[in-house]
Amino acid sequence: MNGKERANSDFKSFKLIDFFAILFLLSLAVYSFNLFRLDLFQSLDARNDEPVGNVIIKNNIVQRRFSDRVIWDRLFVSSPVYSGDLIRVAELSDATLELGENRIDLNENTLVRIHSAKDSESSIQIELLELTEGAISLVAAEDIVVNVAGRFLQASSGTVLNVSTGDEGTTIQVSEGSAVFIRSEQVREITSGGILALDEGGAELTDRAVVILSPISNARYLKVEPEPRLVNFSWNRVHFENSDALLLTIASDRNFTQFIRSIGNLYDRAQVSFDAGQWYWRLSLEGKVLGEGRFTVTEAAPPSLITPAAGSVFHYQTDPPNIHFQWLEIEGASSYIMEAALAGTGGAPDFENPHISRQLTASSFVYPGIEPGTWYWRGKTGFSSLF
User: Fold this and answer.
1) How much is the pLDDT for 244?
2) Do residues 209 and 238 touch, judged by C-beta distance below 8 A?
3) Distance in angstroms between the alpha carbons of the first and the last residue of the chain
4) Does pLDDT of 344 surpass 80?
5) Cα–Cα distance list, 348 to 131, 175, 309, 373 (Å)
6) Who contacts 330 (Cβ-Cβ below 8 Å, separation ≥6)?
7) Which of 142, 191, 215, 222 is surrounded by the fewest CB atoms within 10 Å?
8) Is 97 helix (H, G, I), strand (E, B) or coil?
C-alpha cells in the first residue's frame, strides 16, 4: 500500500470513529434534554395542584424535589409544598413547614417527605427519612402522623413533640399533649413529659434523659420592656436519682465558644433574663449533654416613623389631600398597625377610637382625602409565633 492509499484508509477510519462519537454525544444530549423537558413539565403541572402548605427558609440551604422528579430546587424565603414533595435541609440550615395549622421545624441534615393521606385518620403525614441524623419539632394544631422508618407516631391536636433519629437510634419527646407510637402490633402512648428512646435495633433504652417542657424548639419571645426578657426553662427528669443536679449553659453562638453564663445545681427548672438576640442553650449532667435548643428574643419597639414628619402642614383648595404614611421596617415583624387620630377638644389625640386604623404587611400606605384638622399618628409592630 502506497502513501496515498494509506492516507485514504486512515481518513475513512477516522471519519467512521468520529461519526459514531458524534452520534453518541447527540443521543446523550437528546436524552438529557428529554429528562429536563419532563422535569420542567412536571414542575409546571405541580403548580396546578393544590399545595398542602408552605416551607419557610430560616437559615442557609433548603431544597425541594417534586414527587418522581430528577432535579432538586433551591428554595428561597417561602415556597408552596405539594403532596409527595421531598424537603432536604442542609448542614447548618433549618426551615419551618406550615401544613394547615400545623408547624414543623426541620433541623439541619434532615430529609422529610410530605404525604396527603385523605383516606386515613390524618389528612397529612410527615415521613422522616433515614439519614445519619435528622430531627423535627412539631406543634400540632390538628391530627398529624409522623412516619419514622416504618413506625408511625400519631400526634393529636395540641401536641408539642420532638423526634430525632440517627445512627444511635430514635428518640421521641412529648412536651405537651400526647402521641401514640405504633410499631407492628404494639401501641404505646406517650403523654406530656414522656420520652421513648430506641437504639438502632429498636430496643428501648432506659438511660437518664430529660424532656424539655419549656422553651419549645425555636421559640420566639417578645421583649416589650427596656429590661431583659425573663425566660422560663423547665424539664421532666427520666431515670434520674434525686441527688442528680443539672447544669444549664447559655451562649450566643451554636458552638458555645462565646459563653454567656452557666447555672448549676438545677433540678427541673430555671429562670434566666435575656436581651434581644438569638440564644443557644444546653442542659448537661457530668459533661453529657441531655438536652439543647435555640430561641430568639425580639425587640418589640414600635417602628420609626418617616412620613408625614411631625409638624407637617398640607394645604389644599378643593379636594382634601392624599397622605402617604411610611415607616421603617423591623426585622422579623409579620405585620404593622398604623393608627391616626384627630386632636380632641383638649388638644390630645383619641387613640382609644382612632379615626384611621390599618393592619398591614407593608411599611407604607396612602390614605385618600384626609379631612381637615390636627392629626397624630403612631405605629405598632406585630409578630407571629411569639410568647
Assistant:
1) 93
2) yes
3) 93
4) no
5) 63, 48, 18, 12
6) 301, 303, 381
7) 191
8) strand
Query: Rounded to an integer, what is the distance from CA 107 to the centroid of its chain?
Result: 8
Going across the sheet that includes 209-214, the strands are: 209-214, 229-238, 269-274
pLDDT in tens, 171-211: 999 999 999 999 877 899 999 999 999 998 889 999 999 99
CA distances, 354 to each of 33, 190, 192, 337, 374 (Å): 61, 50, 44, 12, 13
Quickly state the pLDDT bin for 44 (edges 50, 70, 90). Answer: very low
Q: Give the span between the Cα atoms of 157 and 177, in whole angstroms.
A: 8
User: What's the whole-number mean pLDDT along residues 260-268?
Assistant: 95
Region 285-302 average pLDDT = 90
Q: Which three cell numbers, joined as nine digits, stand for 302?
A: 414600635
pTM, rounded to two decimals: 0.71
Amino acid at 280: Y
Contacts of residue 136, defined as CB under 8 A and 6 or more positions apart, other chains included, come to 104, 105, 106, 107, 110, 112, 126, 128, 146, 162, 163
**Would you call 365 helix, strand, or coil by DSSP?**
strand
- Residue 264: which of 284, 236, 290, 242 has the closest Cα? 284
- Which are the contacts of 139, defined by CB distance < 8 A and separation ≥ 6? 102, 103, 104, 159, 160, 216
**pLDDT value of residue 299:** 81
Given a cut of 60, whether residue 3 has pLDDT beyond it is: no
The sign one gets for the Cα dihedral 178, 183, 184, 187 is negative
Secondary structure letter of residue 318 according to DSSP = S
